[in-house]
Amino acid sequence: MRNPSLLAAPHRVGFFSGSLVLLAAMAWWAWVMVLRLTGVSLSSATPPAWLHADLMVFGFFPLFMLGFINTAGPKWLSVAAPAKAYWLGSIGLYASGSLLIALAGFIPPLHATGDALHLVAWAFAVWIWADRIRASAAADRRHAWLVLAAFVMALPALSCQLAASLYPAGPLAALWVQSAIQIGIWAFLLPVFLIVSHRMVPFFSSSVLQPYVAWRPFWLLYAWLLLALAHAGLSLAGWFDSRINSSLTDLVFAALLLYASYRWSLRRSFKVPLLAMLHAAFLWAGIALALYTAQGLAAWAGLYTGGLAPLHALTIGFFCCTLLGFVTRVSLGHSGRPLAVAKVTWMLYWLMHAVVLARIAGEFFTHQATLWFSVAAVAGLFTIAAWGWRYVPMYWQPRADGQPG
């Protein structure tokens, strides 16, 4: 990583390393799914599904977050960017952990070392972000403080994940994995995505849709975050008592998310494809919570259906589609290129939506589940590889407009 342009800004390093880990994670899982389709199952000390969860929850999303927050965060706070040694050290250390976890699919002993690096690197990243907030005199730091709170919640999640990888055959391993997933998704990833969406989606919309009133009340954001934590708590409680589920809180959560999509002018956003990428991705959050609601209510009636469909509507639908939208926008803007998506990017974005539908279909067409899961994995790999072929080179190339950064 000695390329001067690659090291010129945090988003370049974070997005570059995040893209590589994402591609590696998708490639490994597609390989696992295709092998399973042919009747071959991998045997390992760590079940492949557990490693898949670790990579998908903790492998690449935090790298993109560190690239974004160390680039955009100081502008939110009107403070100087953190020292290069700090942001480069935290991103580099975290990326090293992700690389080891990706290799653990072939060399299992690397898993625990990778998780340990994640925990240390993330603690460092939390300190860096907290230091920038303390240095700020900005009048409104609410989004920044909330991001910090979500970042802090990643620490117990990463600790649970480390415990699971250290003792994969232990009696509590499954509980450690479940805790890492629930805390990691509902107290860390989902809050960060919601906080950034609450701040940025109305802002971006107001800059291109006229007339437009940027609606983003803080009571809405606080309600989302409390409901996300409630879901995590009830889901963990359901691990011990199957009669407990979060369907009633999920119903309120779904209603608030879908209402926000309406108030943020989802339909009008399609006038500008780059903006529509953010709006259409956000819609998946409401759909996912509606699926969780339906699944929970059905469980109370003694019907167990849908499997992991709601989870993947959230993680692939909301998280991954939002990631494509935001990272595409930041990559274009910070590389000195026009804020307009090419047709191929637009097609790849909608292919990712098709990946979500294929993954969900496998939970309902159970006789062909492995086929649907394989289709989703291979299509997801193709989408990320094709997107990366177009955008990843921007991170090591100088800005097109000749400006620094």
Short description:
InterPro entries: NnrS (IPR010266). By secondary structure, the protein is mostly helical.
Produce the secondary structure layout:
Elements: H1 10-37, H2 48-59, H3 61-77, H4 84-103, H5 110-134, H6 142-166, H7 173-208, H8 218-240, H9 247-263, H10 266-269, H11 273-300, H12 309-333, H13 343-364, H14 369-391
Task: Note down, in words, how this protein is organized.
With 405 residues, this protein is an all-alpha fold. The protein has a single domain, classed as Cytochrome C Oxidase, Chain A (Up-down Bundle). It is 75% helix and 0% strand. It contains 14 helices and no strands. It has helices at 10-37, 48-59, 61-77, 84-103, 110-134, 142-166, 173-208, 218-240, 247-263, 266-269, 273-300, 309-333, 343-364, 369-391. The mean pLDDT is 95. The chain crosses the membrane at residues 12-31, 51-73, 85-110, 116-133, 145-167, 173-197, 218-240, 246-262, 274-293, 313-332, 344-365, 371-389. InterPro entries: NnrS. Keywords: Membrane, Transmembrane, Transmembrane helix.
